Amino acid sequence: MPSISTEHFALLKTDLLAHYVPLLPALLSLTEPPAKQAQKNLSRAFSAFALRHLTGILVKDACAAVIDDFDDFGVDAIYYQPSNETVYILQSKLKESDQITQPEALAFTQGVRRLLSQALQGFNEHFKRREKEIVDALDNCAHIQLVVAHTGSGITNHAKIALDDLFRDEADGDLRLTNAIIDFDFTKVVNGLRSSQAYKTIDTTLVIHKHHSVSGATPETTLGLHSDEWHRLADAMLAYLAASLPIGRCLGG
Predict the structure, then answer these.
(1) Tens digits of per-residue pLDDT, 188-197?
(2) For FRET with 131, which of 62, 83, 201, 251 sits at 20 to 30 Å CA-CA?
(3) CB 105 within 8 A of CB 112
(4) Edge to edge, what strands does the sheet with 77-81 contain?
């Protein structure tokens, strides 16, 4: 299975830094090296990004739902949506190409089991500050939906087995647990970037010469664009063509 492109991954990190990281709850410990703290905050912001584009809530509310820290029982965000009476429990992984692994899935399922049984000892301070809110939501919701968000090449088979084991174990237990996980993969990430207009406007004139090339010229130099702008423009053009041209013409028919 493919993973997110380098260009889209860079756009995602830019969007997270600009709109999500500033609104996150502060990290509980600042003893880690600054680079590790920065990477952790990007990962936490990705949980909020996924929640935002999955549920349509405001960025600030998505960020407030994040409980991810350096110790979180594998659960990165918890959000209750009153409109559909659903509690969303989310794990995310912000790695350009890495899959969700078995240890990550096992940590997540352990955290979910603790939430469902309300064995809440050991959750971090982010959770404790919201404990009454979360417990009330779990007591009164109609549905519990698990979400795994990632930018890499999917979920490993062993990780899928760990997740399936959770659903099988809870089949005769909490009937509110939706029996299918939402896989918020890189395609949903890219759609989220587009819907939030993460692509800045490129103001330039584009002239296409049929069957003509300029020796030694690149798209960037011919159009006067920087490399990242060229990639955004090319991506936008391809999306437009795919949406507007008949299928036969797109396929060369």
Answers:
(1) 999 999 988 6
(2) 83
(3) no
(4) 77-81, 86-93, 143-150, 182-184
Contact residues for 244 (Cβ-Cβ < 8 A; gap 6+): none
Rounded-to-integer distance, Cα 230 and Cα 57, Å: 32
The number of C-alpha atoms within 13 Å of 46 and in the hemisphere containing its C-beta is 30
193 contacts: CB under 8 Å, gap ≥ 6: 8, 11, 12, 15, 199
What's the Cα-to-Cα distance from 103 to each of 108, 116, 158, 186, 194, rounded to whole Å? 9, 20, 9, 21, 32
Integer Cα distance of 24 and 87 in angstroms: 20
pLDDT digits (tens, 9 = 90+) for 132-149: 999 999 999 999 999 999
Residue 57's nearest CA partner among 196, 179, 176, 198 is 196
d(CA 88, CA 80): 6
Find the mean pLDDT for residues 20-27.
97
Asked if 44 and 66 touch (Cβ cutoff 8 Å), the reply is: yes
DSSP assignment of 89-128 equals EEEEE--SSPPBPHHHHHHHHHHHHHHHHT--TT--HHHH
